[in-house]
Amino acid sequence: MGTSFVIGLAVVSGLTMPALFAPEPLPNGGKVDAARLFVKSLSDAERSKALLPLDHPERTKWFFARGEREGLFLRDMDSDTRQAALALVDSMLSDAGREQWRLIREVEAINAARERESGVTPPTYGDDLYVARVFGSPEARAWAFEIEGHHFVLHAAVVDGIATATPMFTGSFPAEIGEGADKGTRPLGAAVEVAFELARTFDDAQRMRARIMDKPPADVLWAVGADSKASEPRGVARSEMNNAQKVLVDRLLAEHAGLLDARVAEAQLRAWRAKPGSELFFVFVGEPDLHKPHYYRLATEFFTIEYDSTNADASHVHCVWSDPTTNFGGDALRAHLQAEHGASSPTR
Known about the structure:
single chain; 12 strands; globular; alpha+beta
C-alpha cells in the first residue's frame, strides 16, 4: 500500500500511525466494559430479547428496512439501558461515525413526527426503533453485538480482543435534513462529495472504465443476501490514476474507514493491507450531481464499499460496507465456533 494512502487515512479520519501499522487487541476498558454495562443494565425480561448464544442463527440475519424485528428495541428500554446500548454503539464508532449515527436518527425522528401529524399510529419511523442484541458473553474470548433498524445496521464481533464491524449499513431519506438545527445537513454527505470530486477529474477513458453499468442500480448490490458475495474489483484502478486522483481515492476510503473507531477500522482493512500489491478500484455511474441518480463503489479483492442514490428523485441514499472475511466476525469467529461449539457453518 502506498505511503499517500497511509498519510491520507491518518490525516482525514484521525487514525494514528501506530494503529495503522501495529494493530493491537482492544483495551479491556473500551468495548468490553461498554458491553458489560449494557448486559448488567438488563432486567430478566429484557435479557430474553437482548441476549442470545454466540452460535444462534439470528446473529447472521439482518435487514435495513422499517418494521418489527427480533431483539430489544431502544423504545422499550429504560433510560439506563438505553444509555448503555447507545454507549456500546458509540464504542465502535469514531466521533465522525457517532455524529452520522445521530443525524440518521434525527431524520427518523422528523419522519416519525410527520407521520404522527398525518395520523399514522404507531409511526413506522422513529429514532428509537432500533434493536440491540449481544451474542455470547463479553467475558468470553469471542462475542458479538448488533444494532439494527431503518438505515443503520452495525454487526460488531470481537475475537481475542480484535473487533470488526461488518456488514455495516447506513442510509437517509430524505438525504438532506429539512428542518431544525441541522437543516441542510446530509448525514451521508461527506464521502459522496469526495467521490464527486474524484469522478469530475476523470478523462474520457477513465469515465468509460468507471462506468461499469449503463445506469445506477436500483440499490446497493452487496447488502442483505450478499454477505458472502465476493467483491468485484472493477473500474478505475488506483495504480492507473494520477497523483491528484490517488489523493482523492485515498481520502474517499478514509472518509468511510474514519466512521469507525480507529482500532476497528484497522481490523477491517488489515487483510487488504497485508497483501502487497492488492489493488483498490473505483466505480462511478450516473452524474456527479446530488439531484441526479448516482452510484459509486470502492472495491478490493477483500471488501466492497458502495453508495447508491437513485430512488425518490435521488433523495434516498444507501451505503454498505461488506467484507466476506470479516462479516459477522468472519474467519476468526468461524474458527472459534468450530473449536468451541462444533458449528460447521456458523455464519451462513
